[in-house]
Amino acid sequence: MRRLSQSLHHIMYDMMSSSRDVETEPTMADLIESGRRYYAAKRYKRALELFTKVMKSCPCARGIKRERCTCKNFEKVAAEGGSIFKEAMYTCKCDVGRTFSKCNNVHHIQALDFRAATFEALDKLDRAMKDAEWILELAPRLPDGYLRLGKVARLQKNHEYAWKIYTAGIEINKENAIGSSPKLQQLYGARKPLHRHFSRKDPLTLPTEIVMLIFSYLDFVEIPPCLCVCKQWRHTLTSPLHDRLWRNMIFPGRSMKRPPTHDVLKKMLSWAGNGGARKIVIPLPKTFLLTQQKLMLLLKASTSLEHLEIGPQSEGLLFPSIQKIWKRLRHVSIDGTGASSKPAWSTAKVHLGGFPLMFLNNAASSLEHLTVLGIPEQWYMTQLIPVLPRLKTLRMSNTSTLRDSFPILFLSEAFPRLEQLWIGPNIPNLDLNFLDGWRDKWETIWNHLQVLIFEVSSIVGPTSQVENSLLTLRCLTCLNRGNSLRHIRFDVPTENEDRHGRPRVFSNSRHLLSDAEVPQYPEFQNLHSLRSKSFCISPDVSRVVFSNALDAGKLTSFDIVFPTESLTDRVGDKSIRHLKDHDWIRGAPSIQSMGCYGFRFRSYPRNDDDLPLPQFLASFPRLETLSIFSEHYEEAEFASVVAAILKLTHLKTIYTTSVKGAVMDQLRRVAEGEGVKLTWGHPPQQWPVPLEA
After folding, report:
1. pLDDT tens across 548-599, in order?
2. Which entry of 49, 394, 449, 610 is 20 to 30 Å from 276 by CA?
3. Which of 3.10.150.10, 1.25.40.10, 3.40.50.2020, 3.40.50.2000 would CATH assign to domain 16-198?
């Protein structure tokens, strides 16, 4: 009875529909609405008939039967990474494309969409796929076809294809806001669960420049494990297209579990292409297991080498001494200090390798930057010094302090075009080598010297030797009347005046503390920075010596080291007087960085006279960086001095080591409240020093 009742109901429904059809011809919208009711009633056959009728009645058919184009292959195009939109828009070799145009008729698209949904309900996914593709063919700019085609692909478990279809639809509509269309919102929603998985792309399929950029963020030792990902990765990363990955062989400054063997290094060098490595950095030869065989392989295979750094050697290694094949080598840093107190190339070990004199001489045509840690003893006797006419920067130091005086001016003959010189630490004493012998050459010594750095941790040797060393520094500052110098840093734990009050290095007098005079007086017209954390200079001398650079607007960085108080001094008097005597520099508009070291102002200051430093620093309108240290304060009191400075200045960065722990944390919060970055430590020292044009 129930089945009979349902049958009668459907017959009556059909009769009513037929009677309406007789009265008026149903519109496309009416047919779609009827089809949807049949679909809801699961009368799929009747629904299909109505949806098909809508499709045939669309004006785009122009009264003739419109077939679907079979030239398009969306799945193949998607698999090959092509444009699905272009496939839908332009690919057609049959008569359909010539006979019919695209169609954006909403009822035509709806009818196809509902018919595809009906086929889905009937589990006829192949036919549903064809209708979905037909929608895409008719209206490739609308989201409808992408939505339906993506859904059918998901029902077929072809999730990657579905993701590509959804993505193609989003790309075509990227100019439209997401909220501009409900269908577009559905498109984003449908893609979301697939996007996290399928949006990931094998980086090696990207353009070479992007691949190189990605791998540039890896340390060099992290690249070889990438070869184990798969054969394709190994083949691609070791191909000539990516040879630059293997040209900067920078090994870590830490222990290595598996240092590269000789054979592995040989392969890496072959992957680097013609000329081998451009940069070789081995900070820890011991953990790298650097042998004579490895060193020779690295150097001889890298004929286009530009940068070489070898860390401390416990045993001297032989460098190639015959070949003149390094025409591009510009930077060499060698460390012969090893584990012992003497360099690996000291006299006792010369037979094991010795200082690489010939290697450096053979690279003289290109070598511009040299760093030597562990000065060969022969240099003190003016022997075994390479001749490097193009050398611009030299940094030399020892790990242990030698009492011998170093004959610094002899280096001017070996390195005539030197621009930057850094001496120390642990080369505390310099020697003029009989200044009279250099008088005739004085006008030609280091005419291009722009940076002079001298640092020692302690004064070593008899008074006469120390005074001679400081006199040598003074002569170096007199070269070219001091006008070629841009940056000076002297970290010497002493004062510029001797016990008799006579200037040692910087002087407001034209005479040396010696019978031999140099014919120039330093003017420092181009000085950009004077840095020192320990070398105290009287304000009167500073004013005379450095006012030229200040008046010219060149001086941008200046450090003030305060004198040490005696036991009989009232606390704060010396520092207050010392700062007051620096009024000559107060408020200078060119000063951007300043250092204040070793001061001691009054305890419990009642006014600016008791603590004048904040007001002094506030007078510089462009001051951004402050380096401040003093061993004469307890942490809490020192923090109060810095807090007072923060209130009055417009600094951006402060460096200090005078507070730490909880006090540092509290002071850092105060600094952040003023927009200042408080850093524990010293300002970074770049080498070579950047020289602005």
Report:
1. 999 999 999 999 999 988 888 888 899 999 999 999 999 999 999 999 999 9
2. 394
3. 1.25.40.10
